[in-house]
Design goal:
heterodimer; A: 121 residues; mainly beta; 6-stranded mixed sheet; 4-stranded antiparallel sheet; B: 108 residues; 7-stranded mixed sheet; globular
Chain lengths: 121, 108
């Protein structure tokens, strides 16, 4: 069971970026998938979640209205579209697997290695 | 949101020692909805404990967790060289899920 993120880059403030999370060893349509981030020198922050049945898409207040989570079952991948990027969005972004067939909050297991997003002019 | 604090910030220990790490929540985490993770430099966080005291798959039995309400602990019965890392607690009682700032366990 693994998750591999890609798509991180250096982008200017106000710009957009799309992160990808490729899952293997399990089906993303059976599990919640989350995006989390760690800004440099700061702690871990949960960013967004898509539940197994896509009935719930949730976001941290800090990204609501700017970030969109989605998935492609055929590619077994989850995406994070990030618009109107700001300096405080600079972070290593991880995707992680949540609970199976559940709407409940839970733990994250496993995590991907992460992809670096840098927002700077 | 529920704020988690961890103490101490850093622990300097020797292999073979017993470790107790603390995680305190700003409000009750009922049902023991608390997890612990280990992270080493350059690696993703690794789930150790969920439900306050249940070991994740493949985690050695030298790791254990306990606690309820607002106070939780992670124990390592006997430190192995590979256990030197940063440890984080995470609550999933209320959205958003939040993490503590971490405790670094380094070699004395």
């Amino acid at each position: 069971v693994t998750l591999v993120e890609s798509g991180g880059a250096l982008v200017q403030p106000g710009g957009s970026l799309r992160l990808s999370c490729a899952a293997s060893g399990f089906r993303i349509d059976e599990y919640a998938i989350h995006w989390l981030r760690r800004p440099p020198g700061k702690g871990l922050e949960w960013v967004a979640r898509i539940t197994w049945d896509t009935s719930s898409l949730d976001y941290a207040d800090s990204v609501k209205g700017r970030f969109t989570i989605s998935r492609d079952n055929g590619k077994n991948s989850v995406f994070l579209q990030m618009n109107s990027l700001r300096g405080d969005d600079t972070a290593v972004y991880h995707c992680a697997r949540g609970l199976r067939w559940s709407q409940s909050l839970g733990w994250f297991d496993p995590w991907g290695q992460g992809t670096l997003v840098s927002v700077s002019s | 949101e529920i704020v988690l604090t961890q103490s101490p910030g850093t622990l300097s220990l020797s292999p073979g020692e017993r470790v107790t790490l603390s995680c305190r929540a700003s409000q009750s985490v009922s049902g023991g909805y608390l997890a612990w993770y280990q992270q080493k430099p350059g690696q993703a966080p690794r789930l150790l404990i969920y439900g306050a005291s249940s070991r994740a798959t493949g985690i050695p039995d030298r790791f254990s967790g306990s606690g309820s309400g607002t106070d939780f602990s992670l124990f390592i019965s006997r430190l192995e060289p590979e256990d030197f890392a940063v440890y984080y607690c995470q609550q999933y009682e209320k959205s958003p899920e939040t993490f503590g700032p971490g405790t670094k366990v380094d070699i004395k």
